[in-house]
């Protein structure tokens, strides 16, 4: 499994991966498939450029045998106490092969390079496999919860990792 930063010319691939992720695990994300499908090609081009070049957001793909099988991002959001791990997903066929851990470490390396000392994430409270992955990679549950933006009937939990 190889992990690399998303390239500026990969808007279409970023869109395709996001659709795969939302189709596979719709309750794991703050947005819906309908919202994602409504974004124009230009929006996806801009997102790829931002993920490739920005100091406030960085996206990563996990690849196996030349195929993209996972994605994750890091985000420094104004008003947040620390950067966030966002949009984490690994294809079912690639789970359990180290891709999730590798994506997390890519985000950790990126946020450390910008001076961060902690990394946070929000995970759907019913997503036991993701919670187990985050615990294995040194994230600690803070006890904080909030409604999942894409489905307020579900809660998400905040986890933090000291870097």
Outline the structure in words.
The protein has 163 residues and is an alpha+beta fold. It has one domain: Gcn5-related N-acetyltransferase (GNAT) (Aminopeptidase, 3-Layer(aba) Sandwich), CATH 3.40.630.30. Helix content is 35%, strand content 34%. It has helices at residues 11-24, 33-38, 41-53, 99-113, 128-136; strands at residues 2-5, 57-64, 67-75, 84-90, 118-124, 140-148, 151-162. The strands form two sheets. Strands 1-2-3-4 form a four-stranded antiparallel sheet, with helices on both faces. A three-stranded antiparallel sheet has the order 5-7-6.
Give a summary of the structure in a few sentences.
With 163 residues, this protein is α+β, with helices and mostly antiparallel strands.
Using only C-alpha atoms, the radius of gyration works out to: 15 Å
In total, how many domains does the architecture comprise? Answer: 1
Q: Assign the CATH superfamily.
A: Gcn5-related N-acetyltransferase (GNAT)
**Shape annotation:** globular
How many strands? 7
Q: What is the topology, as strand order, of the major beta sheet?
A: 1-2-3-4
CATH topology: Aminopeptidase
The profile of the biggest β sheet is: 4 strands, antiparallel
Termini separation: 23 Å
CATH architectural designation: 3-Layer(aba) Sandwich
Strand content: 25-35%
CATH class category label: Alpha Beta
Question: What is the element string, with H for helices and E for strands?
Answer: EHHHEEEHEHEE
By secondary-structure content and strand pairing, the structural class works out as alpha+beta
Runs in which pLDDT lies below 50 for 5 or more consecutive residues are none
Mean pLDDT: 96
Helix coverage percent:
25-40%
Q: How many helical stretches?
A: 5
């Amino acid at each position: 499994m190889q992990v690399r930063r998303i390239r500026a010319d990969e808007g279409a691939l970023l869109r395709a991966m996001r659709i795969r992720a939302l189709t596979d695990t719709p309750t794991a994300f703050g947005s819906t498939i309908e919202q994602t499908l409504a974004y124009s090609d230009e929006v996806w081009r801009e997102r790829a450029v931002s993920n490739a070049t920005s100091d406030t957001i960085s996206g990563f793909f996990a690849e196996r045998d030349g195929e993209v099988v996972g994605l994750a991002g890091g985000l420094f959001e104004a008003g947040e106490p620390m950067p966030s791990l966002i949009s984490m997903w690994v294809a079912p066929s690639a789970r359990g092969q180290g891709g999730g851990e590798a994506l997390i470490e890519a985000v950790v390396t990126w946020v450390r390079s910008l001076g961060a000392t902690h990394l946070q994430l929000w995970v759907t409270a019913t997503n036991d496999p993701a919670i187990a992955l985050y615990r294995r990679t040194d994230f600690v549950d803070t006890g904080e919860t909030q409604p999942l933006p894409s489905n307020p009937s579900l809660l998400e939990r905040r986890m933090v990792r000291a870097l």
